[in-house]
Amino acid sequence: MSIAHDIGIPETGAPMTQKTKWLLAGIGVLLLAMFAFAAAGPYLAINGIRDVVANGEYGGLPRYVDFDKLRESIRPQIQQRIAGSIVGRMGRSDASSMVSGVTAVISEPAIDAMVSPIGIATLLRSTALVKQVSGKAVPGKRLETYDPLKGARTGFESASVFTATVASAEGKPMVFEFTRNGLSWKLTGIRLPD
Description:
The chain is an alpha+beta fold. Helix content is about 55%, strand content about 15%. It contains 7 helices and 4 strands; from the N terminus they run H-H-H-H-H-H-H-E-E-E-E. It has helices spanning about 5, 20-55, 65-90, 90-95, 100-115, 115-125, 125-135; strands spanning about 155-160, 160-165, 175-180, 185-190. The N and C termini lie far apart (about 70 Å).
């Protein structure tokens, strides 16, 4: 008798036992279920974000949004835009020495406001908020929330990166980036339009 026989693995040429077939089938089903859950994960995160915002329970957003990674994704984009604006107004030679310090001071409050539960909720509810502020809301009628991810072009960039691309108000692409950590997915980046 061999070691393979002792632990239940059939030897070459030996027929598989019923128990081994069920064990392999169970492992196959488990792997398939894990793959399906991981593949559906970004869509579950998107729907989770929608539900949290629709119910006004913004404290639930950290379950679907990694605010630290999102902040790190947006920070260089905002700072680059601010620096470009300063350089454009002052001229390249005058602005170069002070641009980096000024952009950090100016950008941090904007980044903190944008990358917060309220900031994400505002992004997702902007149409409803505009109607409330402008007085165009009908009393007693629930306001329809704006969903920037509705109709998004979605796809996997890799096994752990999923993107949802939508058009900005100017028609330029804005990309929401979701990253996998284990079997869960979270919003970790937004690529702002150029």
